[in-house]
Amino acid sequence: MMHQKILLYGANGYTGRLILDELLKQQLQPPLLVGRNENTLRDIAERYVLEFEVCSASDFASLLKRHKNLEMVINAAGPFIKTAAPIAKACIAQGIHYVDITGEISVFQQLLAMHDKAKARGVMLLPGAGFDVVPTDCLAAFLKTAMPDAQEIKLAFAGLGGGVSRGTALTAISQMDTHTWVRHNGKLTAIAWRAREQEIDFGPFKATCLPISWGDLQTAWVSTGVPNISVYVPFGAKVRRWIPLATRLIQFEPLRKFALYYAGKKLTGPTIAQREKAQTHLIGEAFNARGQRIRKHLVTPDGYTFTALAVVAVCKRILKGDVKPGYQTPAMAYGADFVEEISGVSWLER
Fold first, then answer.
1. pLDDT at residue 55 is higher than 80
2. Overall pTM > 0.90
3. Same structural domain for residues 199 and 159?
């Protein structure tokens, strides 16, 4: 048995496989592969000539006790509302750093509640180490640094090309609600889906956008302390017209189950060619009480490509001993300029 330092949970998923490929491409120590489906996990392990173990999130405590040399766990197995807490608790008990790629607000809140215990054990909890939420967290931190008295941060992002993976779609459908969320005066606040519809200039194009319940409503608030935060993405005219009704209908369990089944069968994620051509534009604006405004524009690779690169960048930091015990957001752990370490990232306005 090899003495692995990295455990990758969920390598059989679309994004998990990208992370695995990037770990090996950058010649980090081969990880121990762990997952719930023995057949698919065995196929991957044999293809890459790696060791694997079958384990559910609830059994991680006993798994980690058997592997004394691990330094970090990468959790790429969603929905993270089911996997993050038990794995993080097991990591804290064994003194192992925890990293995941969640964008779920409730998961960030769960792990924040573990801060004191993790800090006492010298363990770093770093959820959201992928496209959710590295670029937006770093963007928010840049805005706060540039405008220390900011009272509002507005973030927006739009992809050109690419596609959606099965896991992303399943999580989105599972969390779909009849309203969306913003942070208002420090509190998460539900608003009607089209209450803040607006056109946003992304530089090469403009798009009509709606606010979504993105992870930064929690993470950017923790990172910056700014009390008013919203995150926008583009929606087509037909989707905007029908989204209030569609989100009400999908609350009926048979319809939600059908949507989950359809997404699970039909979606495979973007191809390599699609990811290579795609890019994402991110806009950040900050406002203070005097009506002043600043704006920053960041461009990244496709979100899935970015996630793999960002997770491996975090792994390299951890293996070098660059850790901050306790709960961290990406910008809190490694600074607002951490996003600049990711290949293919550039600023159009800074």
1. yes
2. yes
3. yes
User: CB-hemisphere CA count at 13 Å for 289?
Assistant: 5
Distance CA(146)–CA(114), nearest Å, equals 31
Rounded-to-integer distance, Cα 335 and Cα 317, Å:
12
CATH classification of the domain holding 160: 3.30.360.10
How confident is the model over 9-43, as pLDDT tens digits?
A: 999 888 999 999 999 999 888 999 999 888 999 99
Q: What secondary structure does DSSP assign to 107-125, as a single string? A: HHHHHHTTHHHHHHTT-EE
Containing domain of residue 169, as a range? 134-303
CA neighbor of 183 nearest in space, from 228, 234, 233: 228
Nearest-angstrom CA–CA distance, 139 and 298: 8
The C-alpha atoms of residue 120 and residue 111 are separated, in whole angstroms, by 14
Query: Both 323 and 286 in a single domain?
Result: no
pLDDT recorded at residue 1: 47
Residue range 139-148, pLDDT digits in tens: 999 999 999 9
DSSP strand pairing (32-35 vs 97-100): unpaired
Domain count, the chain: 2
Q: Is the dihedral of CA 189, 192, 197, 202 positive or negative?
A: positive
Q: Does 138 map to a domain?
A: yes
Tokens 């995941």 belong to: 100
Main-chain phi, psi angles of 256, to 5 degrees: -65, -40
> Is 176:213 a contact under the CB 8 Å cutoff?
no
